[in-house]
Specification:
By secondary structure, the protein is mainly β. It has a single domain, classed as Porin. About 5% of the residues lie in helices and about 60% in strands. The protein is built from two helices and 13 strands, in the order αβββββββββββββα. The strands form two sheets. It has an eight-stranded antiparallel barrel with strand order 1-3-4-5-6-9-10-13. A four-stranded antiparallel sheet has the order 7-8-11-12, with no helix packed on it. It is elongated, with a radius of gyration of 23 Å.
């Protein structure tokens, strides 16, 4: 499924007649709610140990930040920025008739560099597809506990490479800016945290599972309007005199 998504985005890049505004640099902001689902391996991880079931799920989250976009040809633009990312994970322990549920969150930052291409659907409506690398940053390890368990999650690295893919629609106004809605998929190249679960009631050996860090979002963006940069025509000899 992951490969099919990437190939689909690349096919949009390579097979469609596209139009973009050239020589426009604009700044915007975005908010991206993270939705829990099993699409593209972003679902629940289940471990059984000593007749106890452990479910680890990405329950919710969001990403928000500032973006800078520059159109450098009629076909392509580039976009970068920095985003704050909060992932909320749910840990559920089922031991016979006992069921305990708790949550913990992972805070990180993301710096994407995406290549965008545009499909003009109308006078003011554009479809775009983007793809590119990103760097994920994680500040610390995290832990949570209750009277029946203890959870510790250890980051894999402070900085980790990832890849982004995006599809969306953009409505461009003459003076009020650009309004965008779309969907994104974020995939780190390796797991971001290793979670160690201590459940002393029925286990002497801790349960260990990795957190992949991939997520699927709805994207809401706004970019401020900027006039295209105009080239200054070269002066001829008569004008200089």
């Amino acid at each position: 499924m992951k490969k099919n998504f990437i190939f689909f985005v690349l096919s949009v890049f390579l097979t469609t007649h596209l139009t973009a505004q050239r020589k426009v640099t604009t700044v915007g902001f975005q908010i991206k709610p993270i939705f829990p689902n099993s699409f593209l391996s972003a679902g629940t991880k289940t471990i059984y140990q000593d007749n106890v079931r452990f479910d680890l799920t990405l329950a919710s989250g969001f990403s928000a930040g500032m973006m800078v976009r520059h159109g450098f040809s009629d076909l392509l633009a580039i976009e970068s920025g920095i985003n704050y990312v909060k992932r909320s994970h749910e840990l559920k322990i089922t031991d016979g008739s006992f069921e305990g549920t708790s949550k913990f969150r992972i805070i990180g930052y993301e710096i994407p560099v995406n290549l965008l291409v545009y499909i003009r659907l109308g006078e003011k409506i554009f479809m775009n597809a983007s793809m590119g690398p990103a760097v994920d940053m994680f500040a610390s390890d995290v832990q949570s506990s209750d009277d029946y368990y203890e959870q510790r999650s250890y980051r894999n690295n402070i900085f980790q490479p990832a890849v982004n893919g995006n599809l969306g629609l953009e409505y461009r106004t003459a003076k009020s800016g650009y309004f965008y809605i779309g969907a994104s998929y974020h995939q780190p190249f390796s797991y971001i945290y290793a979670t160690e679960i201590h459940y002393p009631k029925n286990n002497t050996v801790p349960v260990i599972e990795t957190i992949d860090g991939n997520y699927f979002t709805l994207d809401l963006r706004y970019f401020f309007y900027e006039d295209p940069k105009k080239k200054t025509p070269p002066k001829n000899d008569d004008e200089e005199q």
